[in-house]
Amino acid sequence: MSTETFGCLYIVPTPIGNLADMTERSIQILRSCDAIAAEDTRHSGQLMQHLGIRANLFALHEHNERQRAEQVIERLQKGETIALISDAGTPLISDPGYVLVQQCRQAGLKVVALPGACAFVTALSGAGLPTDRFSFEGFLPAKPQQRRKRLEQVATDTRTLVFYESPHRIVDTLADMVTTIGTERLLVLARELTKQFETYLSGTIAEVQQQVLSDSNQQRGEMVLILGGAPEVEADDVNPAALKTLNLLRKELPLKKAAALAAEIHGARKNTLYQLALEQDNQ
Ligand code: SAM
């Protein structure tokens, strides 16, 4: 069969709260496709009912994606059109779909991704923190030790950082941010976007933490954390002797250890030395 008679996989975003955020084109594709792969067929069945679409839904989630991908590919090769949706927002963004899209591309099949609702893009565009350079970090690890380690790894990143967070972990995560990043960086907590209780809390990490601790309603619902980037460090800000020690130690030790030792010897800030070394490496 020639590839021209193959079908197409459509990646279709669904609302993150407000059902009116479904685009006309998305509705049209869901209405006309042969089948819809959904993360949770019961959940998506309700959306289809709301849209008045008699859909042929089947489940594709993180536990069966590999096996389902093979079946989807066979169907696409027979000429069918299939849409992929997740429970909310854009599929593949902290949601299943990567394996399927990668395998479809590898098989030379057509994949068309539609634009639409996505929580982190919505939060970022409404937060009032720099958007020229940012890093989407997805969910932080659930285990405290790994979460703190990840936060330490990104602490000196000068880009705006975007995290998804669960209401069960928000209090612990804010405490971990204080420990690993400090109290003074700017932070925005964007909650319940597009829904009735949409809220943006903003301030320093300490201020946002205070607002969340003093009002348990702020610990509820769906949330995105947007952290302002670390300030750029200039070589002039650092004691030249500390920098010299750091560069000597780096020849024998990993950067993190070298920065910690050089900081201790010269009474400098470990993170500043570490960040400066990274910036120099990137020049
Ligand atoms: N695919 C989705 C997207 O495009 O944003 C994300 C799916 S991920 C499993 C779910 C997480 O997205 C939530 O835990 C929360 O961090 C974020 N999220 C989803 N809807 C949201 C909303 N209405 N307001 C704030 N955050 C939301």
The gist of it:
By secondary structure, the protein is α/β, with parallel strands linked by helices. It contains eleven helices and ten strands.
Explain what this protein looks like in three dimensions.
It is elongated and about 70 Å long. The N and C termini lie far apart (51 Å). The protein has 283 residues and is α/β, with parallel strands linked by helices. The chain has helices at residues 24-32, 41-51, 65-77, 98-106, 119-127, 144-154, 170-181, 205-214, 240-250, 255-266, 270-282; strands at 8-11, 35-38, 57-59, 81-85, 110-113, 134-139, 160-165, 186-191, 199-204, 223-227. It has three domains: 3-117, Tetrapyrrole methylase, N-terminal domain (Cobalt-precorrin-4 Transmethylase, domain 1, 3-Layer(aba) Sandwich); 120-227, 2-Layer Sandwich (Methyltransferase, Cobalt-precorrin-4 Transmethylase, Domain 2); 235-282. It is 42% helix and 17% strand. The model has no long low-confidence stretch (mean pLDDT 95). Helix 3 runs parallel beside helix 4, helix 6 (144-154) packs across helix 7 and helix 7 runs antiparallel to helix 8. Helix 6 (144-154) links the parallel strand 6 and strand 7. The site of S-adenosylmethionine (SAM) has 24 residues, from helix 5, strand 7, strand 8 and strand 10. This is 16S rRNA (Cytidine(1402)-2'-O)-methyltransferase.
